[in-house]
Design goal:
two-stranded antiparallel sheet, mainly alpha, single chain
Length: about 140
């Protein structure tokens, strides 16, 4: 059973989302927008993922391990991507990616979703740019 989200959770324990887990939500977009904290952290991740270049990113050494606990995940998000997350956002993120309920995030699964979000965001940016370009040409 997934951990329960509570904004008043004492520090040192993991906040999470009301009965939402990555396994219980099939569609990635549904998972990433099912809760306000999830939507908030998704926007933060998307803003970085859209422009992240693995060739110039300096590597993702902190994500080379098998799993990260919440503290390590928060630190790696900050170090690798400059993303600051609130305790509620961290709890939401961990709950989504903690498939086995042990309170850790599988690094490869997180990175897979990170790059998938980046690809989706780049597509949205390109589509918006193309619409603007077409609108200018019509004038």
């Amino acid at each position: 059973m997934p951990l329960m989200y509570n904004a008043n959770t004492p520090e040192g324990t993991l906040p999470s989302i009301d009965n939402i887990s990555i396994a219980s939500l099939g569609d990635a977009n549904a998972r990433m927008n099912a809760h306000p904290d999830v939507a908030s952290v998704r926007r933060k991740i998307a803003s970085v993922a859209a422009y992240y270049d693995p060739q110039r990113g300096g590597g993702l050494k902190g994500f080379n391990g098998a799993e990260l606990d919440p503290t390590a995940l928060k630190e790696q998000l900050r170090r690798n991507f400059g993303i600051q997350v609130t305790p509620a956002e961290l709890g939401a993120l961990v709950t989504l990616f903690d498939k086995d309920g042990d309170g850790t995030v599988d690094c490869s699964e997180f990175l897979h979703e990170f790059f998938k979000i980046g690809k989706s965001e780049r597509g949205k940016i390109k589509a918006a740019h193309d619409r603007q370009k077409m609108a200018r040409q019509r004038r």
